[in-house]
Please model this.
Amino acid sequence: MAGEKSLVSRIRARAVEMGMEARPFLYPAAARSLAGSTPERVQELVETTRTVSVALQEAFGERLHETPVTAQLLADDILEMAMQRAGLSTPPIVPYEASAALAMLLLRDYGIITVHFVGLPPGTSALMFKFIAPDVLNAFGGAEAYAEAIDGCLGQLATMLAEPNRIRQLLLGDGKDGHA
Model:
């Protein structure tokens, strides 16, 4: 698809949100995940996501973007917030890298799996939170603790901006195993 960047970006995000990016190799996993699904369970997951969204709104204000089933931090906003915290005026990385780094910090430090790691590889440029299970959120310590973890990881990203190679190592490894 080609066209106006902001329009194509919104269309792509909506398509990913609706599962239209599914590929044949993902169908069996999708079918298994839906096996025990009920409308009530889906509504419960959406409500839990809304609870998280409220806590994220407190932490990030207008930077948080919401749809009926997701809360999102856009890659441009992630980079801008990290740069503000770091006191930088020139970005040392691109927004997509900032979003990926924040997602990796959340996974590494808190076990939070975002759409970045299970969606269209390597994910969308936005960091999306959706369909959070109530038991998972309770085990995490609640919506406020979840939002604090995200805010804390954004702070870590800010400190890493001074040495962009640390972000490369976070995302790609250190190369000692022959990779990256």
In short: Residues 26-172 form a domain with the Aspartate Aminotransferase, domain 1 fold (CATH 3.90.1150). The CA atoms of residues 104 and 171 lie 7 Å apart. The two ends are 30 Å apart (CA to CA). The longest strand covers residues 70-73.
